# Entry
Amino acid sequence: MVREANVKQAAAEKQLKEAQGKIDVLQAEVMALKTLVLTSTPSSPNRQLHPQLQSSGTRGAHKHVGHIRNKSASGAFAATSTKPELSSVSIQPVAKEDREMDSILFAEFLMWREHPGLDRSSAFLSRIYREDIGPCLSFTRSELSQLVQSAVEKNSLTIEPVAMSALPMVKASAIECGGPKKCALSGLSRFCRHRIKLGDKGSYYYISPSSRARITAVCNFFTYIRYIQQGLVRHDADQMFWEVMRLRREMTVSKLGFYLTDQG
# Structure
């Protein structure tokens, strides 16, 4: 009996140490996330916190590979395998992007910032819903589009990469959930590398790269304004406003069909 009690005590102490270790890891991750939010934005990332952004000369032979989320809504084209002669290429000077603040949009943002929330009745969010979010999440399958928008608003939508041999985890018709070669939102035959899930329970829906880009662009916007609402963004009003405008542009560009592709 004594030996059995000692064994149980040793097992309990081991579980306690493992639990404490997990708590320490989670606390460290929370602190790292706070540091990232306070010192970095998608448009102005902190390069010390994002080693993958360092130049190739400082990184050596390491290559950053991963799931690019908010980085999934801008345009990109694959480079061709053949390289033209330099003498035949006309090098155009790179134009510097300039910008001018719209006084009406900025005033609406300042009014929302005084009492930040997710209520679309404010002039700020009402405009963005009408001009950006609505069009960006408007797909051929309107009913599913509404469910996707609702899940994004509730922060309950999951996007995950899938193997091409994966099958839906619940029984559903191919028309409803699409498949590895058919997008459930657009209904078009596309090579679908990702699928979404609306909430904790329900079906998985296969989505094309373009549909994924449009959804993640809206998710990025909601993530940022939630950070503002929670007081995690320590920037002045001008910086916040321009980040919101950049995220609005991301939604517009992805709606037009431009998006980045993950380079393996």
Notes: The beta strands are 157-161, 194-198, 204-207. The chain has eight helices and three strands. The CA atoms of residues 2 and 150 lie 58 Å apart. The two ends are 58 Å apart (CA to CA).
